[in-house]
Design the sequence.
């Protein structure tokens, strides 16, 4: 990291990550800054670089989420190209421990569910941490998350390797990510092995099945990072329920969904992703949305009428559910 003067602080609240990193609760998820289907390089690399620089240099974004499986590899390389040497205030979180086969993995289509196979063998995790360090141009990763718990490898071995790498100074903090979620039981088990500072689960205003782990994390000072924060288009698409509701308040559906997450729990750390600078700027103004309690209750009731899509395991194989 290089010494730098951070942009003017945002108006929204901040969050302490691991007790020693303070970040704005509105960050940026870089996942979509890759090729179609989150595979390969972006179609317009120059625009992707411009967006990252706009976010960090001008708009106050100080938390970026990525993973070794985004691209794979290209996403981390792009972040380095755009932002290295990194400003002091920037926290980059990355993840490892999951395999993909191609661009269709995360495509929503009838009869298709994400092919996301956990691989938590310690030697593999070590390799992936080293590769992420290299691609990002870092000596230490501020937050490294186990992307998915491997059911075929003892959790002690998976997290034990990350703890060992933390002791070696290659990782600052450790987190857990779920596809689609980490359970409270799993988080409790993990917390007995190593300090967990963040958990990343599928969660949004219409899909609140992760409420117990959100509150578990909140009570213990862990950050909760919701992925699919806007319901994969179910909520904020052209006919989405939040899109329609937002028209009453002069905001966007995405701003409404993100503002609700900020309001709902004190430990939410948001990483809305976009490839549009305009949408990025709009999303970051979500912390300016002010509605009354009754207005929020009305919005919650509207969202309770829809069932957003979520990935479901379709069968078992050696690598676990897929």
Sequence:
């Amino acid at each position: 990291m290089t010494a730098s003067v951070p942009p003017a602080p945002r108006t929204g609240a901040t969050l302490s990550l691991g007790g020693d990193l303070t970040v704005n609760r509105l960050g940026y998820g870089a996942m979509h800054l890759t090729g179609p289907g989150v595979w390969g390089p972006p179609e317009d690399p120059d625009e992707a670089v411009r967006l990252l620089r706009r976010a960090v240099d001008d708009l106050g974004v100080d938390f970026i989420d990525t993973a070794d499986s985004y691209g794979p590899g290209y996403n981390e390389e792009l972040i380095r190209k755009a932002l290295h040497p990194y400003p002091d205030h920037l926290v980059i979180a990355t993840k490892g421990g999951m395999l993909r086969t191609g661009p269709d993995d995360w495509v929503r289509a009838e009869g298709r569910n994400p092919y996301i196979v956990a691989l938590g063998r310690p030697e593999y995790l070590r390799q992936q941490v080293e590769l992420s360090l290299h691609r990002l141009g870092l000596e230490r990763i501020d937050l490294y998350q186990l992307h998915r718990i491997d059911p075929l490898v003892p959790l002690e071995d998976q997290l034990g390797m990350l703890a060992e790498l933390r002791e070696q100074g290659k990782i600052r903090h450790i987190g857990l990510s779920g596809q689609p979620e980490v359970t409270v039981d799993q988080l409790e088990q993990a917390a007995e092995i190593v300090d967990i500072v963040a958990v990343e689960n599928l969660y949004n205003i219409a899909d609140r099945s992760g409420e117990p782990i959100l509150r578990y994390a909140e009570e213990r000072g862990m950050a909760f990072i919701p992925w699919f924060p806007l319901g994969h288009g179910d909520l904020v698409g052209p006919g989405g329920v939040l899109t329609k509701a937002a028209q009453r308040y002069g905001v966007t559906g995405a701003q409404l969904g993100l503002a609700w997450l900020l309001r709902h729990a004190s430990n939410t750390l948001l990483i809305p992703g976009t490839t549009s600078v305009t949408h990025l700027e709009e999303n970051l103004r979500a912390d300016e949305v002010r509605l009354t309690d009754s207005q929020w209750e009305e919005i919650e009731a509207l969202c309770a009428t829809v069932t957003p899509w979520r990935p479901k395991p379709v069968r078992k194989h050696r690598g676990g559910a897929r």
Observations:
- The radius of gyration is 19 Å.
- The longest strand covers residues 171-177.
- The chain is about 35% helix and 15% strand.
- The longest helix spans residues 122-136.
